[in-house]
Amino acid sequence: MPIDTTDYRDIFLNDRPMMDARAPVEFTKGSFPGVINLPLMTDDERQRVGTCYKEHGQQAAIVLGHQLVNGAIKAERIQTWADFARANPDGYLYCFRGGLRSQIVQQWLKDEAGIDYPRVGGGYKAMRTFLLETVDQAIAQCNFILLGGMTGTGKTELLTQLSNGLDLEGHANHRGSSFGKRATGQPSNIDFENRLAVDVLKKRARGIEQFVLEDESRMVGSCALPLPLYQGMQRFPMVWLEDSLQGRVERILRDYVIDLCAEFIAVHGEQGFALFSERLLASLNNIHKRLGGERHQRMLALMEAALAQQASSGAVDQHRAWIEGLLSEYYDPMYAFQRESKGDRIEFVGEQAAVLEYLRERVRFGD
């Protein structure tokens, strides 16, 4: 018979398949990478059982639960669990605390489908605690270095070339700036933290004890960095990535116009271009107050003209005008101030190839 487990490290290092028996509303608030939600009860059923528990106690709630999940509904759910178990013989099931719900699923699988399927002891709560502790331990035990630089220098591009890079924006599915929203939306904050923790766990398992991450604000879109990490980022040493204005304009054109437009079309089909245009204009309007009225109107006119050209011919040339204007008049002065305020922590400055070589050497010699 398969054995229940509390080896959370093994689960996340080896991407063990898992089915989450919690209700959909619980799953949506936070789960783990790759997990499938196959609930014992729907949200409505869970709410009714919870109300019964508060008013009449556990035994009455259990009786109600069995009444709600019975007959064809019960058979259908057991079939779904059995299909998952057969397709993932090395997997596990869990509920919130590894208690009654996962025990019932486990028992019904055995009784009705003849399948012994193991549970995760402690459930979601214990695994979540393990991942939070993973990040806390890394902050206490490892070395971190920040990657800074003006907008468009290719910081994420560089991070992905490093074996010890932590791509916060990748885990948050957001590019970090006012223009950073993607077509596919962001994970919940809990999902973001869990993805980051699994990444840290896997890298440490490979012997990595020094991490490089982009210098971010506390919020990456709607995702908040773990507070201990953000607090550490106020003191970590830094390298500063540079590139020419022309190089940065071309990179932003590629990432925020060409690639983002293609992403919207891939996700939304015929409506993709219109939604992409709305997103770009909304991003500009989000910084209206910080730009000031005159500058906002000027950039807006440039952006609208560029979008009109793109809609009619597919050409993107005119986008360079508002990109260059925003960089030179808005983003660069802001980043120049940041660089000056963090100057005593900057230990290396260079363009992409030089910074990449420096960071790889830094790891090699364990500095």
From TrEMBL:
GO terms for biological process: tRNA wobble uridine modification. It is an enzyme of class 2 (transferase). SMART domains: RHOD. The lineage of its organism: Bacteria, Pseudomonadati, Pseudomonadota, Gammaproteobacteria, Pseudomonadales. Involved in the post-transcriptional modification of the uridine at the wobble position (U34) of tRNA(Lys), tRNA(Glu) and tRNA(Gln). Catalyzes the conversion of 2-thiouridine (S2U-RNA) to 2-selenouridine (Se2U-RNA). Acts in a two-step process involving geranylation of 2-thiouridine (S2U) to S-geranyl-2-thiouridine (geS2U) and subsequent selenation of the latter derivative to 2-selenouridine (Se2U) in the tRNA chain. This is tRNA 2-selenouridine synthase. Its EC number is 2.9.1.3. The active site is at 95 (s-selanylcysteine intermediate). GO terms for molecular function: transferase activity, transferring alkyl or aryl (other than methyl) groups; tRNA 2-selenouridine synthase activity. It catalyses: 5-methylaminomethyl-2-thiouridine(34) in tRNA + (2E)-geranyl diphosphate = 5-methylaminomethyl-S-(2E)-geranyl-thiouridine(34) in tRNA + diphosphate; 5-methylaminomethyl-2-thiouridine(34) in tRNA + selenophosphate + (2E)-geranyl diphosphate + H2O + H(+) = 5-methylaminomethyl-2-selenouridine(34) in tRNA + (2E)-thiogeraniol + phosphate + diphosphate; 5-methylaminomethyl-2-(Se-phospho)selenouridine(34) in tRNA + H2O = 5-methylaminomethyl-2-selenouridine(34) in tRNA + phosphate; 5-methylaminomethyl-S-(2E)-geranyl-thiouridine(34) in tRNA + selenophosphate + H(+) = 5-methylaminomethyl-2-(Se-phospho)selenouridine(34) in tRNA + (2E)-thiogeraniol. PROSITE patterns: RHODANESE_3. Keywords: Selenium, Transferase. Residues 20-136 form the Rhodanese domain.
